[in-house]
Records
---
Amino acid sequence: MTVLLVHGDREYLRAPGEELQTDLGVLTVPDDVEPGQRLETHLGDEFVVREPRGPDLFDHFERTGAPMMPRDIGLTIGFTGAAAEDRVLDAGTGTGVLAAYLGRIGTDVVTYERDPEFAEVARENMRLAGVDDAVEVRTGDVTADLDDLTGFDILTLDTEDAPTVVRQAPDILVSGGFVVVYSPFVEGSRAAVEAAEEASLTDVTTHETIQRRMTFDDRGSRPDTRGVGHTGYLTVARWQ
């Protein structure tokens, strides 16, 4: 089990038996390490042991591009009701954050990544998240295998050719199954909506995802003026 070693605002992922070397000293993670333990470096500085959860993995996964934000993942799970034993077909694995979150709630995920190097990074991230038995990362283009992909409860897409896959959703999904398409641009969402309507999907909606952090000080309270609250658009649809 990989654990998170925390000292103040510093965080490091390490497996049992691995060594951590920082300016605070050196320590070796015990083989029987448990969350909640406090480990001391040879200089006497303490690190608290935590079990990594979804947000921690988002922060520490090796990245191959811009991953979906936790809020987008939360909306995806909320809109679809993704639950244990659901079968999920995902395309556009990237870093694998969405696939890892889905695997951690007990779904069985098949995810496609075109770039072989990105796919290998995603496999390593699945091992880091402890979901490599629940998430199968396939190298290739999902459109090449559509004839063999059936019986899924949920279809999640973060690819430029998402509309092509959406048109095949009736053959991919079980009755009542959901499609979620993430797009950074509204044009991609419009194309996904048109494809969903062509495929006779129902309950087709698109949502812009915006989240603003609040700041509180002596002058008053307001949304933080730093950063960008918009990440993208989620198009959701359902097969009959």
---
Amino acid sequence: MNPTRKSSLVFGLFFFGTFIFSISALFFYEPLFNNSDYLLLGGFDTNISIGALLEILLAICNIATAIVIYPIFKQVSGSASLGYVASRTVESLLTLSGVVSLMSIMSLRADFTTGSNPDDLLLVKQMFMAFHDWTFLLGPQFCSGLGNGLLLGYIMYRSGAVPKPMAWIGIIGGPLAFIGGVLVLFHVLKPFSLGLFALTSLEIIWELSITVYTIFFGFKLIAKLEKRIL
């Protein structure tokens, strides 16, 4: 297995990790998200800690996807490759900010006593939840649209690392996801709405397709670039 194939495999596995960790974290957060009286139950819930750990691993995988391929694709476009590293880093920081907000709620729950004012606590919870929701929008929606979609799609198109029709899915889907985020920002669309999903669907297809392609097939670089790397 040559270095390029190893890099593509590692890239694909880290990308696969972003799906696994992000989706599984939601299952552990489910009681906090869907129970309005969750904070008033008191006690420490290790499920939230597990969800937080999964999101920390998600942040690691996010940054790793960009770092692993940077040495290869900086020869295709140094600015786009560096931009991809930056966008994944910012996305991960926003993800971790959301984790801090949820763990803050958990600290309030752990310290809850019968003498505490439940109305004040519920208001604080709503504030932290609102903060978390906006980090989710600014991170996966905007950063993924720009980074995973437009920048990564452009890099893959220029290098010939994946079939060009596949790369076009990212080049088109990324800006559409970004536009969806803008519409939510201005209250034209609601978070997690059908309209937002429709604008993000191409980006999701692109991320799934490049994950599968790089794990099972690997990068197909243009001959001149392959020779320079090896």
